[in-house]
Design goal:
This protein is an alpha+beta fold and about 45 residues long. The chain has a domain at about 1-30. Helix content is about 10%, strand content about 20%. It is built from one helix and two strands; from the N terminus they run E-E-H. It has a two-stranded antiparallel ribbon. It is elongated, with a radius of gyration of 22 Å.
């Protein structure tokens, strides 16, 4: 997280947050579950 301080044009403080995300498949069958997934129909009572 970096603090850039107050902006000269407005009473606003700028901060940058670096967020690194990763994706891991720990099981070979877990990747197969993502294949050909269709959305479920919405059912209202």
């Amino acid at each position: 997280m970096r603090d850039f301080g107050e902006v000269h044009d407005a009473p606003v403080f700028r901060t940058r947050v670096d967020w690194y995300l990763g994706f891991a498949v720990c099981n070979r069958k877990a990747a197969a579950r993502l294949f050909n997934v269709a959305p479920m129909p919405l059912v209202l009572p």
